[in-house]
Amino acid sequence: MTMMPSAPHSPSHSGLVGLSALEAFELVQQKGVVFIDIRAEIEHFFVGSPPNVINIPWQDAPDYELNPDFLKEMNEVAQVEQTVVLICRSGHRSIDAGNALIEAGYQKVYHVDEGFEGDKNDQHHRSTVNGWRFHKLPWVQC
Questions:
Q1: What confidence tens digit (pLDDT) does each residue in 75-131 have?
Q2: What's the whole-model pTM score?
Q3: Contact status, residue 21 vs residue 138, Cβ threshold 8 Å
């Protein structure tokens, strides 16, 4: 099956660590790790999300502009020395958000490079090649 990225990945900061969905699942089981879903609120609720993840959108509806309060909201749930794991749809937005967190002083930032839904296959379907759901990791939906 061919993997078709949805968009080119942004360059990632040297301090940002990419994890597979399986590696991320293991890491977020550890005490003190903060797991953040940076997708839009509508994606988080209607597409589904890992259980116990905190939704802080990097971009949100209706215009999908950058969330001006992203760092403020992050600072309310995580300290800069805590381990933070970010997840988005396919691992693209989490690079941008992770870069911003590192630039803001966060020291241990990881992102799920496969995302929640993963990359598209030849028929442009997600969750068929990689990603959190593809690996049958726990998730919930409203």
A1: 999 999 999 999 999 999 999 999 999 999 999 999 999 999 998 889 888 888 889
A2: 0.92
A3: no
* Closest of 71, 133, 95 to residue 7, by C-alpha: 95
Question: How many whole angstroms separate alpha carbon 99 and alpha carbon 103?
Answer: 6
Cα dihedral 119, 24, 64, 12 sign: negative
Residue of 75, 66, 78 lying closest to 35 (CA atoms): 78
**Fold for the domain defined by 17-112:** Oxidized Rhodanese; domain 1 (3.40.250)
* Residue 95, phi then psi, degrees to nearest 5: -65, -50
Residue entry with tokens 């995580």: 78
Active site residues: 88
Q: Which two tokens stand for residue 111?
A: 């992102």
